Amino acid sequence: MSGNNDLFPTLDPAWAQELTIELRIRGVDGATIGETLATAEAHCQDSGESAIDAFGPAREYAGTLPPPPRGTVRSDRRLAVPSAIGLAGMLLSFRTVDAWRAAAQIPLTLGTVLTWIAVLGATLVLVGHLGLLLRGRWRAWAIMTGLFAAIGLLSVTPTPTLLHLAPGAAAALVAVLLGTSVALTYRLSPEPDMIRHPLGNGARSRSDVVVEGLTPWVFVILTVVGNGLSQIA
Amino acid sequence: MVDQPYPTDWLRAVLDLAVLRILDDGPTYGYAIAARLADEGLGIVKGGTLYPLLGRAESAGEVVTHWEAGESGPGRKYYTLTGSGRGRLVAASGRWSEFARRTSRFLSPTSTPCDTPVTDRSTR
Questions:
Q1: Which one of B58, B76, B78, B79 makes the best mutation probe of the A interface by having the most chain A beta carbons within 10 Å?
Q2: Size of interface A-B (CB pairs under 8 A)
Q3: Tens of pLDDT along chain A (233 residues)?
Q4: Which of A54, A156, A73, A135 is CA-nearest to residue B52?
């Protein structure tokens, strides 16, 4: 992914990064962020000032800029659902592979179902309130910590078995979950919103294209890699 | 804003009008606006104050912008006053002149009560 250092080489990287994160949290699109950074870079070059001297702390400066117009605020919250489905498919795949090798059935317990619900909740909180987490708001962190504690507790607490899944059925379920995750991610993903210089040619780098192409497949890749590593271990 | 010849609040009150006034002379970019304000003796305006103001003016349709590549320096964002911005400049600068004249007269040691505007003091 093209970094701010490449596009705005004379701007303080830490300041530019913090400003970028703050503007992203506020739903500002990549083109506007690029214009804001380019303006700051030009001003600093003209005035000989550092970004912090000319504009103050990045977070405070971001707060003084006009908010994006209604209807243009970007949000990737809807990707929480395919992410949670993909995560559930990946987690189930680990047990499926173990059961397949042992020629045993997979007990689907109440704890497993509740764990998946907690994972879904954690994903929704993570994606929907990423800004609060990045800003270090204690309530968001407390909720996340509670959800992960619940996941950990559920995974070690004996709970009644609801049904037994045959490895073949479990594998089919894994395929459905991962396939649904990929399809939904493709369907719900907004157009790429890269940060670009206002005087740039707008062309995306090869790495940008590769990252965008792989994003919907991230849980499939993690599933393959995770199971491969567990077999090696 | 630092290094001000006058209290910061004074400049803050008139800064947006001063910026529109500079743009009334023709399209220009942020640092040039700040330099012109300093040259006019209004003080040094930091980028952190100037660009949010310009952004609000752009959102309000008082200025439009375009980018130009620099021959040897950085590319710059140019601001151009619109008809709407010019209209506000004319109207608001007239009111500012009236306010400044009235304030100066009031603060003058030789001012008389009849110079002040009539107000309903019972509501204070």
A1: B76
A2: 68
A3: 445 667 888 899 999 999 998 898 888 888 899 999 999 999 999 999 999 999 999 999 999 998 877 655 556 667 778 888 898 899 889 889 888 888 888 888 888 888 878 777 777 777 766 666 666 667 767 777 887 787 778 777 888 888 888 999 999 999 999 999 999 988 887 677 778 888 876 666 676 677 778 888 889 999 999 888 887 76
A4: A54
Q: What angle do CA A131, A75, A72 make, to 5 degrees?
A: 115
Q: Pick from B48, B69, B77: which is nearest to A64 by CB?
A: B48
The two structure tokens encoding residue B27: 């399209």
